Request: fold
Amino acid sequence: MTIQDLENQFTSGLYTKRPIAIVRGSGAHLWDSDENEYIDCVGGQGAGNLGHANPAVAVAIAAQAQTLISCPEMFYNDKRAMLIQKLISIAPPSIRRVYLCNSGTEAVEAAIKFARVATGRTGSTGCRPQEGQIAGRAGRSRKR
Reply:
């Protein structure tokens, strides 16, 4: 059974897939199961692309994983406090607070809530998906 067969058998089918199976990466380069090399122009679909198998990133992730995997924001955390301090230090002077989130959808939902607080409006904030699109997603959905 191929990688494609295995995924097709068990995944939702929500995403249209390209007919290649990516199995490893280094920097901005990817290789498929047939050892064909590609340049990664997707970059984690919106996530910061620091390169595949980046040694500094791998060491930092391993060190953090040996200390603490996650810490919800209901508790204070030393690393998060340092990150927030760094973000504020490089942000424009008018920005004095940050909101850390896990996804683009969560960021869009927060932006709508922040816009409501800033404007005092409680109704629609003007975010209307066009036909064939999903709110909070930049790509087009398939019409069914």
